[in-house]
Design brief:
heterodimer, A: 293 residues, alpha/beta, Rossmann fold, seven-stranded mixed β-sheet, four-stranded antiparallel β-sheet, 11 helices, 11 strands, 34% helix, B: 425 residues, mainly alpha, MetI-like fold, 3 domains, three-stranded antiparallel β-sheet, 16 helices, 3 strands, 64% helix, binds adenosine-5'-triphosphate, binds magnesium ion
Chain lengths: 293, 425
């Protein structure tokens, strides 16, 4: 944070780099100009155009435009407080629960504006699932944790079908072998990593198209983290995944594209490889080389 | 880190401070223990006083009469209207032939309770074959005799100062030597309503009155309170109206309870025309009184449910109402139950507002429904404590014990319910 404050106060010193010609600079207020890189894709699952988010008077997100492609993992990185979580929560309208929060601009899922007044958030959140920073299983049995979603959405008629959904979801989340004999035990009795995979299984169980993950591994140890990362790589074949992370290596390992946020603006989007090896914006470069954030 | 036995200046200073910290901790522990002992002491004192005063009320003196149900006492068809008092009187005269003067006879008749006649009546009405037979019947003794048997009358005082004259005392001794007087478990106390005669007074009327009143209070205040709390906490828009309501609910919790009694008198009785002195109106008034407590406790327990649970439910597409009812409410339930039980305990012991709605009336009949006039336990205690007869003193303490038993049962029920709802994290 202190580094961040410095950048705002002191004039930015452009670091000499490989191709300084494309490096843009921030203006005096720390506002960032147009997003550089490739925010848009040919075959988007979700599109965001000119998204502004306000908490009361304060603007948290400023004119962000980005696409989420099919079957890709999009990583969002940036210094603390830059609005990654805020933006992520716009994608399934979790921000509706914050009274002071106001979202402007257009966000679509499969071409349909999700903020349109006719859109019901309940099915939307089934289609755009979410996994939170802290594992938050329901204080119910492992089985019920998974079965709850399908039940409320009426996805199954019979107990057999429900059993099947539970099994498939747990298998996809790589948790089946560990818990198949203790489905009736409370989900809160699992280890942190298992709980997080349980939460992923819970999100999968309602058949989403997009899964949003907000720092899903920050409460986990390296081994549990590795398991979740492996899982993310597998899930990509079926779902679009947007992941917020503070661990740069994690973004590099799991994602295909990376977006760098700074003070509410989207600074740069590009293929993960390009962002980490050859960032075009000096803010991105400063961040990934650890000069601040 | 350096070890403690090295005598550097730093360590000296550090050890000194450490010692001070431990001392402070010890002092605080002792103070806490002292506070607990004082509280326990008071509780023990209170309980022992009540129990030592009240336990004797659970036993009662009975006198055995050798009664001949002579046919001539039952001149007409209606057996209930026969003059049982006369039967008892003649039996007593028979048993004590030496008593002749009019005054002494009056004293003799006062050995047994007025309730004895009712007992005979019930026997005969139930079984008319008793007529023209001789029966040994145990009838309740008068309250003064009862007090004498319980050693609560000081016979060393001059005769004019005591309620038991020497003659009466000698009769009781005669009865005792013949085995015709004894103490038995006092079923009357648990099976009848109030009475002017201490030996006939029971707690059942008041207990049932309290039960019905609390039932109404619980049935109304729990759902309304919880619903109000859920609405205010989860659904109400964050605006001035909500803030206004919130302030008012908090203020209501601090309003003296007698005000609720006045309100009940004005609205429920005078305006709605609900009959006075009934558990229905009592329950309504106590509902008003307990609602703020329940709402405040329920809101606090809703607030304490971690937001991550709400997010989890919303995140997989549960609607607001599903989130609240499937996930938040079960977690908040134990806290809500605690608040409810505190409110109900208050309501159980509440006297002042009930005085305002006529529940202080002298009511003999045991209420059969929520619209029958009835007393409630605390008011019954108040009434008995106010009665001049010596025998009502022990009834008062016994009634307090019954009230405490009520409380214990309610609390136990709450603990069980809480256990049932509590979810391990
Ligand atoms: N509920 C809220 N009410 C008001 N302001 C908020 C709220 N949530 C977030 N903000 C503000 O919005 C800005 C962005 O917050 P956000 O949580 O999105 O940051 P972030 O990038 O996720 O940070 P981190 O990496 O620390 O999680 C911050 O300035 C924050 O103070
Ligand atoms: Mg965040």
């Amino acid at each position: 944070m202190s580094h961040l404050a410095e950048t705002i106060q002191a004039p930015i010193q452009t670091t000499p780099a490989h191709d300084s010609s494309v490096k843009t600079s921030t203006d005096l207020h720390g506002k960032v100009g147009k997003t550089i890189g490739t925010p848009f894709v040919d075959d988007p699952r979700m599109t965001c155009r000119d998204v502004d988010v306000f908490y009361g008077e304060a603007q948290a997100i400023n004119k962000v435009g980005i696409d989420v492609g099919c079957n890709e993992v999009l990583a969002m990185i940036g210094p603390s407080g830059c609005g990654k979580s805020t933006f992520l929560r716009c994608l399934n309208r979790m921000n509706d629960t914050v009274a002071s929060c106001r979202v402007e601009g257009e966000i679509t899922l499969d071409g349909v504006d999700i903020y349109h007044p006719d859109i019901d958030v309940v099915p939307l959140r089934a289609r755009v699932g979410m996994v939170f920073q802290k594992p938050n299983p329901f204080p119910k049995s492992i089985y019920d944790n998974i079965a709850y979603g399908p039940r409320i959405h009426g996805l199954t008629g019979t107990k057999g079908e429900l059993d099947e959904i539970v099994e498939i979801s747990l298998k996809k989340a790589g948790l089946w072998e560990e818990v198949k004999d203790r489905l009736a035990e409370p989900g809160t009795g699992l280890s942190g990593g298992q709980q997080q995979r349980l939460c992923i299984a819970r999100a999968i169980a309602v058949g989403p198209e997009v899964i949003l993950m907000d720092e899903p591994c920050s409460a986990l140890d390296p081994i549990a983290t590795a398991k979740v990362e492996e899982l993310i790589a597998e899930l990509r074949t079926q779902y679009s995944i947007v992941i917020v992370t503070h661990a740069m290596q994690q973004a590099a390992r799991v994602s295909q594209r990376t977006a760098y946020f700074h003070l509410g603006s989207l600074v740069e989007v590009g293929s993960t490889k390009q962002i980490f090896t050859n960032p075009r914006h000096h803010l991105t470069e400063d961040y990934i080389t650890g000069r601040f954030g | 880190m350096q070890t403690g036995n090295q005598d550097t200046p730093f360590n000296k200073e550090f050890n000194k401070r450490l010692k001070r910290r431990y001392n402070a901790e010890r002092r605080f522990k002792r103070l806490g223990l002292l506070a607990i002992f004082i509280a326990l002491g008071f509780l023990a004192f209170l309980l022992s006083t009540v129990i030592s005063n009240g336990y004797s009320a659970f036993r009662q003196t009975f006198i055995q009469l050798d009664i001949f149900f002579e046919k001539s006492y039952f001149p007409n068809e209606d057996l209930a209207r026969a003059d049982y008092q006369t039967i008892i009187k003649s039996t007593l005269r028979e048993q004590f032939p030496e008593v002749t003067s009019r005054q002494d006879k009056q004293l003799l008749y006062s050995l047994v309770s007025n309730g004895a006649a009712f007992k005979l009546m019930n026997m005969v009405v139930k079984n008319p074959k008793l007529i023209n037979t001789r029966q040994l019947v145990w009838v309740p003794a008068n309250d003064d005799i009862d007090m004498l048997m319980k050693d609560k009358i000081d016979m060393s005082q001059p005769e004019s100062d005591r309620r038991i004259k020497d003659k009466v005392f000698s009769w009781v001794e005669t009865l005792a030597s013949n085995g015709r007087i004894t103490m038995k478990f006092n079923t009357t106390f648990f099976t009848s309503g109030d009475s002017r005669e201490p030996e006939l007074a029971g707690i059942l009327g008041a207990a049932k009155g309290s039960f019905y009143t609390l039932l109404i209070t619980l049935l109304l205040s729990f759902p309304i309170g919880v619903a109000a709390a859920i609405y205010l906490e989860e659904f109400a828009p964050d605006n001035r109206a909500s803030a206004f309501i919130e302030v008012n609910i908090n203020n209501l919790a601090a309003v003296p309870s007698i005000i609720f009694g006045l309100l009940g008198l004005a609205i429920f009785i005078n305006f709605w025309g609900i009959p006075r002195s009934t558990p229905l109106v009592g329950g309504l008034v106590l509902t008003l009184m307990t609602l703020p407590t329940i709402i405040i406790a329920s809101r606090a327990s809703l607030k304490s449910v971690p937001p991550s649970i709400r997010e989890a439910a919303l995140g997989i597409g549960a609607s607001k109402i599903q989130t609240v009812f499937h996930h938040v409410l079960p977690l908040a339930m134990p806290g809500m139950l605690t608040g409810t039980i505190i409110g109900m305990a208050q309501a159980l012991g509440e006297t002042a507002p009930l005085l305002m709605i006529g529940m202080v009336a002298f009511i003999v009949d045991i209420p059969g429904s929520i619209t029958d006039p009835s007393a409630v336990l605390p008011v019954q205690i108040y009434l008995w404590a106010d009665s001049p007869e010596r025998a009502f003193t022990e009834k008062t303490s016994a009634a307090i014990l019954v009230l405490l038993a009520f409380l214990v049962v309610m609390n136990a029920a709450a603990v069980l319910l809480r256990k049932k709802f509590e979810i391990k994290w």
